[in-house]
Specification:
The complex is a heterotrimer of chains A (about 120), B (about 170) and C (about 325).
Chain A lengths: L3 H23 L7 E6 L2 E7 L7 E7 L2 E8 L2 E7 L5 H4 L10 E3 L4 E6 L6 E3 L1
Antiparallel strand pairs in A: 1-2, 1-7, 3-4, 4-5, 6-7
Chain B lengths: L2 H23 L15 H11 L1 H19 L2 H22 L7 H24 L8 H31 L1
Chain C lengths: L3 H16 L3 E8 L2 E8 L2 H18 L7 H8 L6 H16 L9 H7 L11 H8 L21 H18 L4 E6 L2 E6 L7 E6 L6 E7 L2 E7 L4 E4 L2 E4 L14 E8 L2 H14 L1 H10 L4 E7 L4 E4 L6 E3 L8 E4 L3
Parallel strand pairs in C: 12-14
Antiparallel strand pairs in C: 1-2, 2-3, 3-4, 4-7, 5-6, 6-13, 7-10, 8-9, 10-11, 11-12
Helix pairs in contact in C: 2-7, 4-8, 7-8, 8-9
Classes of the chains: A alpha+beta (about 120), B mainly alpha (about 170), C alpha+beta (about 325).
Chain lengths: ~120, ~170, ~325
């Protein structure tokens, strides 16, 4: 049997390392300002946040549910959703962080990255 | 089939599901996907130490399925199943290496394993590798929640010890 | 070595940036829409392009009291500069080519619907019938309008602006550039790395994208009723007026995208194809041997593309698994 003291030390070490790592990682800046919205890992829309001229709402509807995404110049968030945990809504604005907004129940992810995949949009 | 065992496991499952459903009503503490108290793990741990691996596994599986149905979120079943399985296997492995006064240690490590399993499932389901950015935060939270549920399980095992001896 | 790495990167970056032309972008409002320019070249190119577009707007606008087109509409004849005259001639050719599906004289009707100033209303049938008397591009001769006639070059102005912009870019030595003039796109050359430009086509039924096309030296212009419309008594009225009926075109199409080397032609054809509908548009495309490619989306969400787009057309999002019909010239 391992001494309790050793367990305490080990667990404390894990806690300190994980907390430090999360502080580092969650404040890491994104590679760019292009917001990509994925459902099931498939890209449904990408928006260059620096090119958003006016507030815009974009609703992602799947058979699992609905997320209303709000776009403003320079930032993006989930405004409302009918998912059970509401974590995507509480995550708030995404403007320059590499940590994505996630709605696990709806398998929706909003992530910032560099360079748009599309160079222009017609229509 | 041993009726007594069936009834006993049923009670454990019922308690686990009730705790799980009550926990659904508690708002999330952190806006980080996958972080929650995981109080229902108390039952799994207690069952593992009191009743053995087979019963604990069955109780866990039933709780996850019933919890998914009652919570109205079948996607959650995938994440909890991955996390639950990882946590269960970790607890099973550590069980032989601790005393009954160190159940909280098992709890912390199975909470960490739960986070890893859940994260693996989430990355696979959403095909988003960048989700792992949340992993350190989930692990840090797991240490805390693992301690809480671990001590709860430890007290439960101490009090319920007579069930096993009878 | 590890410490030297950033320095090496910096030197490399500087070396590369000094020989490759720099990416420069500009965006501004003109011609009632949002314009975005990207060129790999000198900053002065962007300034010149903006000045060019503003000049064209000043000459071609139907609302600007000082414009040449406004003078033409008021007096039936006017001193037209080179820009207005050559565009008017080219526009009339496209009107003839499309058998009047594009008709630049439809302006009085469009104005009655309120689309020019945004004060929408549904005109009475008698009013439309009376105004249709003043709609017939064939009656323009020697750049002179019959009494009561008016022209609007709006359906081709952005296309012409892109052609002119590409011309001055070429003169300035630009090899690579992209512009989006309110959704009328022109991709000049290739990207600096040699790959083709990827241009998205809007989904007429949502805010998302329908598809991407990879192009080089091509205009990509989409027309659709979804772009501008109003609703009255539960009925939706969009801004593309059929010159034959005086009412918003109902051809069964939700949007048409035309891709070709001449922006002016693509701009005019996208409107004309939208008015004509899928069958007639394809018929014209085949019989006139038009050197453009097109993407048609029907109201039922069915997608038809012309054969020249095979290999460069990639459906996106909800349309990834949609059935795409490819038609040939045969």
């Amino acid at each position: 049997m391992v001494k309790t003291k050793i367990w305490v030390f080990l667990i404390l070490a894990i806690l300190v390392i994980a907390a430090a790592a999360s502080a580092l990682v969650l404040t890491r800046p994104a590679a760019g300002r292009v917001a990509r919205i994925y459902v099931d890992g498939e890209l449904v829309r990408e928006v260059d946040l620096d090119r958003v001229a006016a507030q815009e709402r974009y609703t992602v509807r799947t058979d699992r549910g609905e997320n209303v995404i709000l776009l403003e110049p320079g930032r993006i968030r989930v405004e409302s959703a009918d998912c059970p945990d509401q974590i995507c809504v509480k995550a708030g604005w995404l403007a320059d962080s590499a940590a994505p907004i996630v709605c696990l129940p709806h398998r929706l992810v909003i992530e910032l990255g560099g360079e748009t995949e599309l160079d222009a949009e017609a229509g | 089939m041993d009726l007594k065992r069936l009834a006993r496991d049923g009670v454990f499952t019922a308690v686990a599901v009730v705790i799980f459903v009550i926990e659904l009503q508690i708002p999330e503490l952190l806006p980080i996907p996958g972080v929650k108290l995981g109080l229902a793990n108390t039952v799994t741990l207690a069952a593992l130490f009191l009743l053995g691996p087979a019963d604990a596994g069955a109780i866990l599986a039933c709780r996850i399925l019933l919890g998914g149905v009652l919570g109205g979120n079948l996607m959650a079943v995938v994440y909890s199943a991955a996390g639950g399985a990882a946590a269960y296997l970790t607890a099973l492995f550590l069980r032989g290496h601790v005393t009954e006064r160190q159940i909280w240690v098992v709890s912390v490590f199975s909470a960490l394993a739960h986070s890893l399993g859940q994260m693996a499932a989430a990355v696979a389901v959403t095909a988003t590798p960048s989700l792992v950015l949340y992993l350190p935060a989930m692990l840090a939270a797991s240490v805390v929640t693992g301690l809480l549920t671990g001590f709860a399980a430890q007290f439960a095992v101490a009090r319920l010890g007579k069930i096993r001896r009878r | 070595m590890r410490r030297a790495l950033p320095a090496v990167c910096l030197v490399l970056a500087l070396a590369l940036s000094s020989c490759a032309p720099q990416k420069r972008t500009a965006s501004f409002f003109a011609m009632d829409t949002f314009m975005e320019l990207t060129v790999y070249g000198e900053e002065s190119v962007l300034d010149d392009t903006r000045a060019l577009i503003e000049r064209l707007e000043g000459e071609l606008s139907v609302t600007d009291p000082d414009s040449e087109i406004r003078a033409l509409n008021q007096n039936g004849t006017a001193e037209l500069g080179e820009d207005a005259r050559s565009l008017l001639e080219r526009a009339l050719e496209i009107c003839a080519l499309t058998g009047g599906a594009l008709d630049i004289t439809v302006y009085p009707v469009v104005r009655a619907w309120g689309f020019t100033v945004g004060e929408y209303r549904v005109p009475e049938p008698e009013e439309i019938a009376a105004l249709l008397e003043k709609v017939d591009y064939t009656r323009i001769s020697d750049l002179t309008l019959p009494e009561g006639f008016m022209v609007d070059l709006g359906a081709v102005a952005k296309g012409r602006a892109s052609d002119e912009a590409v011309r001055i870019w070429g003169e300035a030595g630009v090899k690579s550039g992209l512009m989006s003039l309110g959704g009328s796109v022109y991709a000049m050359g290739t990207k600096p790395d040699g790959s083709r430009w990827r241009v998205g086509i809007r989904d007429p039924f949502s805010d998302g994208l329908l598809a991407a096309v990879e192009v080089e030296d091509r205009a990509v212009v989409t027309s659709g009723g979804y772009e501008r419309y109003f609703e009255e008594n539960g009925e939706r009225y969009h801004h593309i007026i059929d010159p034959k009926t005086g009412y918003p075109a109902r051809s069964g199409l939700a949007s048409v995208t035309v891709i070709g080397g001449e922006g002016t032609l693509c701009d005019g054809l996208s409107t004309a194809f939208y008015v004509m509908g899928l069958e007639r548009a394809l018929e014209l495309w085949r019989s006139a041997r038009l050197e453009v490619e097109a993407v048609f989306v029907t109201e039922d969400g069915e997608i038809t593309v012309t054969e020249g787009l095979e290999g460069s057309f990639e459906p996106l999002g909800d349309y990834k698994n949609a059935e795409i019909k490819v038609v040939g010239r045969g």
